[in-house]
Amino acid sequence: MKDTVLILGGRSDIGLAIAYRFAAAGHPVALAARNAAQLEMIRADIALRHSVEVTLHDYDALDTSALTDFVAGFDPAPGVVVSTVGVMGDQAKSERTPEAAALVMRTNFEAPAQALELFAARMEARGHGTLVGISSVAGDRGRASNYVYGSAKAGFTAYLSGLRNRLSRTKVHVVTIKPGFVATRMTEGMDLSPILTASPETVAEAVFHAVERRRNIVYVKPVWWAVMCVIRALPEPIFRRTRI
Fold first, then answer.
1. Could you tell me the CATH superfamily of domain 5-239?
2. What is the 3-state secondary structure (H, E, C) of 192-218?
3. Known active-site residue 149
């Protein structure tokens, strides 16, 4: 029996692509999202197409009061947990409205980190498991165009690094995925460079191979590693004059 793969944010384009990819390899899949019953047609399609068990679970990433019971409801705990939870937000609105900024920060950092921490404890007690967090290249350095979103992703990246370090002497592995631009509903209408933009299916393939090969940090499109190396290396006086 292959490990069950739980996808937090299972309604997202990336989350669904990951579900189909793991199901194609014979993994049972659990989709967790708000109003999960609305995903019944997708659940049935994955199950029929790949002959695996697919379950639906109600999950509100921002409802911390329900998180402990949600995690405890999986018995046994899934073998793989992937968090695709996130929201781009609007930088200009986040600058003006504290509530908007808080939503971006909580959704991209606090909520996924809290969920993965609880699943990490269960996996550590059991003795094995894999945790995957979808972070972003936006967290590699704060940039004027999206620094609220980027700072939240930076926090999530640092969290995943620390969790990986803490669990390094166990058989629980932690993977950080940095997709760059992805052609999804969240980026619809944006003018994205084809060279820098991945499809949800490409992200799913990267996640699948990262879990199989126990990778640590994965830039979905290698070009982003080079781009961010340059951006990180810019001296601060020069970087301050850029508008990226």
1. NAD(P)-binding Rossmann-like Domain (3.40.50.720)
2. CCHHHEECHHHHHHHHHHHHHHCCCEE
3. yes
The whole-model pTM stands at: 0.93
Cα distance between residue 30 and residue 15, in whole Å: 11
What DSSP line would sit under 24-49, residue for residue?
A: HTT--EEEEETTGGGGHHHHHHHHHH
Query: Do the beta carbons of residue 4 and residue 29 sit within 8 Å?
Result: yes
Other Cβ atoms less than 10 A from the Cβ of 52: the count is 20
Q: How far apart, in whole angstroms, are the C-alpha atoms of residue 199 and residue 207?
A: 13
Interacting residues of 121 by C-beta distance below 8 A, sequence separation 6+: none
Contact present, 53 and 47 (Cβ < 8 Å): yes
Is pLDDT at 193 greater than 80 in this prediction? no
The tokens 């951006």 sit on which residue? Answer: 231
CA distance 225 to 206: 14
Q: How far does Cα 192 stand from its chain's mean position?
A: 20
- What's the pLDDT tens digit per position in 122-132? 999 999 999 99
Catalytic residue among 20, 59, 147, 149: 149
From residue 219, alpha-carbon distances to 33, 121, 197 in Å are 26, 27, 12
Tell me if 79 sits within 8 A of 129, measured CB to CB: yes
